[in-house]
């Protein structure tokens, strides 16, 4: 990758910022309700600012990482990163530590956007990507009633959502997808379980079998790491099963390809750049997906415009089998966008951007006004 040879300047200063951003509406999954808390890393050199985001919650529910773990990892690792001369050196530092992918992605993108600004070089061009119109899906949280669900879905259809992704869990499973299928015939539906069903319970297999009658795809039916049972469900129900929390590295993409070939399953995956550890690992995963003809979409974790910028760089490199992705603008779920120039959706598509540094004009003053804590290094 061209950017791995970029030089890192001396004298970088860092600010780790924990911010609480007010949400417009409740967003609940099987893990619980979203908090709107995010960790950002601002890097500064000369007149340029780089920014990275870790979309983690205060508690390790969706992943093993959480606000304090990201902050502590950054505090330990940033002095080593600051001592490196090149981006390649930064990667050598990050690779030697296990896990902590959200924290690594935040550090990586902060440095890359800083150097992109300093060298006046587009990250999209550096990775061989291109801007294009990407279809967008709406991610609908777990709500209190079917009526509330249908109202949310109707709003999404009104702005042109190309697929409805509805969160499910045991007890909120067949009824919501059946209602969506009835009220919006012809609209693709993805049921996202976030790993809440157990492969050890026959009743859960029966529920998922019934869910499969009303949807086009089921996402992460079983807990992370259980690829075989996901492949079994896909084969038995003749349905696409999308892996989310189970795909944390390029190696997992190869595993999906192997299972599809050996078990006759149709496994795809939700590529979330922060969960993969950032841009470099995401690009490797895209390359493997294209090689093995595995469908994917770019997933979101309620990122702000900072995280959406990283996701756009990754999306720009996908040339085939790209499904509707999680690119709702951050002003759809936060009371205010972090971008002074936010993007919007036109007829269910978002136009990927290309630019220097972060692709949006981030309102640093507003971000700092929402800061709970700032650590300068």
Reading side by side through the largest sheet, how are the strands ordered? 7-8-9-10-11-12-13
Mean pLDDT: 94
Question: CATH topology of the largest domain, anyone?
Answer: TIM Barrel
SSE succession? EEEEEHHHHEEHEHEHEHEHEHHEHEHE
**Mass-distribution shape:** globular
Q: What's the β-strand tally? A: 15
Compute the number of helices.
Answer: 13
Superfamily (CATH H level) name of the largest domain = Enolase-like C-terminal domain
Sheet having the most strands? 7 strands, parallel
Q: Report the span from N to C terminus.
A: 29 Å
CATH class descriptor name of the largest domain: Alpha Beta
Describe this protein's structure.
It is a single chain. By secondary structure, the chain is an alpha/beta fold. The chain has two domains: 2-123 and 364-376, Enolase-like, domain 1 (2-Layer Sandwich); 126-351, TIM Barrel (Alpha-Beta Barrel), CATH 3.20.20.120. Helices cover 37% and strands 18% of the residues. The protein contains 13 helices and 15 strands. The radius of gyration is 20 Å and the shape is globular.
Describe the structure concisely for a colleague.
The protein has 377 residues and is of the alpha/beta class.
List keywords for this structure.
Mandelate racemase/muconate lactonizing enzyme C-terminal domain-containing protein; metal ion binding; Mandelate_racemase_C; alpha/beta; Enolase_C-like; TIM Barrel; Enolase-like, domain 1; catalytic activity
List the helices and strands and how they pair.
Elements: E1 13-20, E2 28-29, E3 32-33, E4 37-45, E5 48-54, H1 67-82, H2 87-95, H3 101-119, H4 123-126, E6 133-135, E7 137-140, H5 146-158, E8 163-167, H6 174-183, E9 189-192, H7 202-211, E10 217-219, H8 227-237, E11 240-243, H9 250-263, E12 267-271, H10 273-276, H11 279-292, E13 296-298, H12 305-315, E14 349-351, H13 364-369, E15 371-376
Parallel strand pairs: 7-8, 8-9, 9-10, 10-11, 11-12, 12-13
Antiparallel strand pairs: 1-4, 1-15, 2-3, 4-5, 6-14
